[in-house]
């Protein structure tokens, strides 16, 4: 895992995993309150889960909200994520709207990273990677399985595909149905990080069984972990303060 991804002052891929906290407000007012609260927490990065936003299909309102959120977060790096319902998100939109939404966000200058789902048309993924890079925005290429944990080879192959498509941060989140599944995710992470990745990767096993995977990224090779503020965006996210304490302890002994 050689290359480091720098977003504002945050170095992803160096030292302890960085902490990202999602914003899940539905209205502009809730989002502004959430952003103000997040500013008081010890975190590294904020993710706006725009699929929760009531006006997500109105590009003008999304842009207005982005400007407000950015001004409250000041220098904290911001990830822009529309998570589709088929991958555990709140809504489904057409591919054309998905591409437009992400392209618009990348062009605003208000965000640092976009999250693009791997399971889209390759051509669409490439268009978004190019648009983002043109505006100095980094790209997470992500995949989520909320039902199960695919075999190790499949997890590694999806992460490699995300890297091949130009994702700066390949990411996968999977659901364990056994402790063996958690080991599968950790082993896939280790193999990807040690053998194939030339950039930081992000992995997690979700829900209670998978919590350990959100804490041990520095050892196994995941560079970023999601923690919760008031409301989690996925099962297994633990409160940010606890997360920081544990990551710091693990880092100091690594
Ligand atoms: O992809 C991810 C990871 C995540 O699903 C998690 O399990 O922490 C949470 C989402 O908000 C984020 O977009």
TrEMBL record:
Keyword check for Transferase: no
EC number, as in UniProt: 4.2.1.10
Reactions the enzyme catalyzes: 3-dehydroquinate = 3-dehydroshikimate + H2O
Active site (UniProt): 144, 171
Top-level taxon in the UniProt lineage: Bacteria
Any single GO BP term: chorismate biosynthetic process
Protein keywords: Amino-acid biosynthesis, Aromatic amino acid biosynthesis, Lyase, Schiff base
Metabolic or biological pathway, per its Swiss-Prot or TrEMBL entry: Metabolic intermediate biosynthesis; chorismate biosynthesis; chorismate from D-erythrose 4-phosphate and phosphoenolpyruvate: step 3/7
UniProt entry tagged with the keyword Transport: no
Residues holding 3-dehydroquinate: 47-49, 83, 214, 233, 237
Family per record: Belongs to the type-I 3-dehydroquinase family.
Role played: Involved in the third step of the chorismate pathway, which leads to the biosynthesis of aromatic amino acids. Catalyzes the cis-dehydration of 3-dehydroquinate (DHQ) and introduces the first double bond of the aromatic ring to yield 3-dehydroshikimate.
NCBIfam families per UniProt: aroD
Subunit structure: Homodimer.
Annotated PANTHER family: 3-DEHYDROQUINATE DEHYDRATASE
Protein name as it appears in the record: 3-dehydroquinate dehydratase
